[in-house]
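Continued from yesterday's entry.
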Amino acid sequence: MSFLYRSALVITRLPPYNDWAIRQDGAGAELQAHLEQDRRTVYLGPEVNDRPSLEALVEDLWQDIFKMELESWVQDPAAWPAPLTRDLFNEWFDVDLIDTVVDLVPEEPLTQAEIDAEDLDYALHHCGWCGLDLGPDGSRAVGFTLPNRELFAFFEGRVLHVPARDGEAIPGIMSRGGSEAAAAEQDLLFRACSSRCEKLIRKHVPRGLQRVQQQIERATRG
């Protein structure tokens, strides 16, 4: 158990936000039911010592929260309501403050950066296909050129999990822009323990990349 020096702002989405989201998506009852079930998000802010500081904390953070809530649904700011005001924020969201935040599983990664670091370590030291723990020698790199590198920019320097077999995804590392690997059009790199695993990676990854690209394109359009 670990005490976190943070406060927690619990954001509850109110009907005006849900109505806006439904209009953007063009869906009906199914989406409305989803929004009613998934109504809240927790944002961690600076530690506070007294309850009356809620107003001051929201005043400092409401714009960031508002933009993140809108971006989680529609990434294009042109589709957002304008102008974004504090009064509109109050109409669309209810805010509650949790003074004490305790992490009951401190051994687990807490941030996206920590998860990314674990994923990178695994992808560097395990066979992408069979998961064998790779020693210092004998492994081989398997590189792919992405069909549209710009579309995958979010994953630069991170692990991209590519669906490849029986619904399972295998981890590949996307090279950073400007790196030697990127210059050589080795956009996505996997480690393989043997020629057999290399062949299987080369066989199954291209189709998996097509599926990932389609998912990203749908999310971008949404």
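--- second protein ---
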Amino acid sequence: MRRSLFIGLSVAGAGLIGAVVPQMPSMALSSTRSVPVSVNVTSVHNVSGVSPWAGLDCNATNVGTTDTLSVGEPDIAVNPRNPSDQVATWMDLYRDNIDTAYTTNGGRSWHRSTPMGLNDCSGAPYNPAIEGAYDTTVSFGPNGAAYLSSMEDEHYALPPTSDYAEWTDVQTSTDGGADWSAPVQIPNPLNADDKDMVFADQSRPGNVYVAFRNAGFGLLSAPRGVGELLFSRSTNGGRSFKTQVLLSTGSASTAPYDSQLAEVDGTLVYTFDTPTGASDALRSTDGGLQWSKPVQIAPAITIPAPKVCGGLLQTRSDGGHDTVVSGHTIALVRVNDGKDGTGPGQIELSKSTDEGRTWQTSVVLTTPEPIMEAQIAGDAAGRLALAYYEVNLSKTSCGANGAAVVPARTLVTASADLGQSWASPQTIGAASWNIASAGTKNFTFGYWVGEYFGIAASTPRGFAVVTVQGTPAGRSPGSVPITGQNSVVVAEVKVTG
């Protein structure tokens, strides 16, 4: 096993960056009320720092990458045996690769590690068609082992696109994320994977699952490109997997998306979005061998991308992790920014108290302007923490030569009554940062910070949040140093009351 690269805290521009940022006051949102619970952001760190891949010539021709694009789609997991151990993972878009970082002291300091063997950059057997690694998530098992998933692809942009393939790998760490095993490929005969989520079963030690889909992105016709909802199962700690098809659209132009897993009282609940935009759920009581028919969680919504300064603003939020709160209630959130995507922004909370059989959905937060991503986590004591990006289109400025400032802020709030009332939201990091820096107009999706970020319960009355932030917009109290145009930022959050 290759020992990871260890990088301590340092000054901006070299290795990882650490900063403890005092909490700045944040304006309460219209749907929040005064309740006996409060939120305090105790620290904020830039954990991505300088990319280890910057300037290297690897992964085919580095399609879609630049030395300023930076990072996206982070996730975080907390060790249930020792909440001081946390692992963050993200897409490093300098050369389309996967990076991780870990802490052993509850987020006071972070150290970067490198999952090896995924592609040409990270030591896989040479393949001139590999374009990179994407869509990464992380989960801790009840024995303290961490599991990392990611996807590698070839011929998405490089011709011939008819040879497009994307496959999912899982890697294991037994030392809190400092080292990662060689990747284990998840079987899928169609080999057009997308949007994976790894999940370690907390009631069945050694069981590890991957939820994902098959999607040909218009490059592949049937059968390889047919849209399928997939589930892969390991009973030996991630050393091997078996995959089953749960649903199929029968079409190469439509597919389910946003595959997510949760577990409550030994029942697995698989939630996903249908091609029409509705949210549905499946249930399994035997560790994923058999599944129920789908039930609807919430009706369809549209996910438009409004045009801003010549680029599309991607306000989609199709990666919100499901969570379990108080041991029995499953909760998930999604964003609805209206028919044209310009707001008002709404966060919808869906809950099930009967192991995913039935669901109740309500709007729990409203903002005058759009919301870009929302994530939720719960703890055993009944507290929910909700984090989200709030965009400020009214302050957008479009400069010459494509320069733009699209201000946003990262907010976190909490509830002690399963979402009936919420604390005043607090800011994570900069009071305002630039989406046009955190995303980029020359990337495939326009102004974009990814389809998800991560949040997880940590210490008692605490949560860890990992997000993407761009360069501060104007005078921004509370800013954490950003490396390049954007960085992965981890915050430790305390909830009292």
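The mean pLDDT is 87. The radius of gyration is 21 Å. Will compare against the first tomorrow.
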